[in-house]
Amino acid sequence: MQRRQFVSLASGAAAAAVAAPVFLRNALAQEAGITGKTLTIGCSAALTGPLAGLGQDVKHGAEAALAHINGRGGVNGRTLQLNMVDDAYVPQRTTDNIKQMLSQGSAFALLSCVGTPNNTAILPLIEEAGVPYVAPITGASSLRKGARNVFHVRASYTDEVHRLVQRLAGMGLKGIGVVYLDNGYGREMLEDATRSLAELSLKPSVQAALATDGKNLAEVLAKVSDARPSAVLLATAGTVSVDLVRGLKKNVPGVLMAGLSVTLTSDGLRQLGEAGSGIAVTMIVPDPNRAKTQLVRDYQTAMRARGQQDFTQGSLEAYVNMRVLAEGLERAGADPTRAKLRTALAGIRNWDLGGFVVDYSGQAPYVGSRFIDLGVLGGSGRFLG
């Protein structure tokens, strides 16, 4: 009965980083990253390491949007370029990458750096430098506190967690456990889950911190197994989620699992295969494999033009993010400055990309979308109809 209920789901900073020194501010002329013919966008993401799958998705989706935009003449006569560098999901490497871009003046704006701890590390730099930054790949509410240069696109993790808890509790499930990544992202998700459960007069039946490299997986599985929850909220991300799911299915047979939009990357889903069947996840963009909206049709066309046939949530999100930045640049005019770009982005109101609306309020914190849907994965790694 629980499984049938579960499948029906488908329808239903901390300023730990060092502030940018004066030499960075002096290097940041408005002309940084821009010429008469090109405009460069910077990005630091995990192209290797535990979140490599998500980083590769971001790369594919952003490049697909970029190729389409440039194929139509670019933006105000300029070709857009993406300078994407690897940080392996290590916050210090993210900081070093962004510092280098800023000091060299090699990026006019930033796009979709990956990870909550990574974005926590770089946001003070970005605010100090005054560089427009569109669509961090994080939904952490702690990073949405009024930054004037940051324009989030995706809905918050808080909203994702709340939606999952509400649905699980609405199914009559009381024993809801939480396994969370033992870093800033995971601990914040635990707080969000605990708060959402408390609103329903519940508390986690078990809570277990999973190391980012999975070294304590056996202990986590034993702790969850002893508690025997009826459902587990997976506040994890990256490759560790794969072994976690397999372990839970083996050690706690029949347990229902629900994850966030970043819990399982596309390569993680491929690795899981049938073992991923029945897991519920939140979606912060429409289903990339169902061409029911103009946005998804445009995205699939752009991906195919790049030789990409694998349609994923991560690459669709990055495709959307690049289009939002390009829209801001278009509105900033033929002689853009960073100030003009910030103003242009803040002025986006009810912009419909074809079934997905972006709307900034005109004042910080800027959050463009509240879109959240729920899906249940089939054995193919796609959402059930």
TrEMBL record:
<feature type="signal peptide">
    <location>
        <begin position="1"/>
        <end position="19"/>
    </location>
</feature>
<dbReference type="InterPro" id="IPR028081">
    <property type="entry name" value="Leu-bd"/>
</dbReference>
<dbReference type="InterPro" id="IPR000709">
    <property type="entry name" value="Leu_Ile_Val-bd"/>
</dbReference>
<dbReference type="Pfam" id="PF13458">
    <property type="entry name" value="Peripla_BP_6"/>
</dbReference>
<keyword id="KW-0813">Transport</keyword>
<dbReference type="InterPro" id="IPR028082">
    <property type="entry name" value="Peripla_BP_I"/>
</dbReference>
<keyword id="KW-0029">Amino-acid transport</keyword>
<keyword id="KW-0675">Receptor</keyword>
<feature type="domain" description="Leucine-binding protein">
    <location>
        <begin position="38"/>
        <end position="353"/>
    </location>
</feature>
<dbReference type="GO" id="GO:0006865">
    <property type="term" value="P:amino acid transport"/>
</dbReference>
<protein>
    <submittedName>
        <fullName>Extracellular ligand-binding receptor</fullName>
    </submittedName>
</protein>
<keyword id="KW-0732">Signal</keyword>
<dbReference type="InterPro" id="IPR006311">
    <property type="entry name" value="TAT_signal"/>
</dbReference>
<comment type="similarity">
    <text>Belongs to the leucine-binding protein family.</text>
</comment>
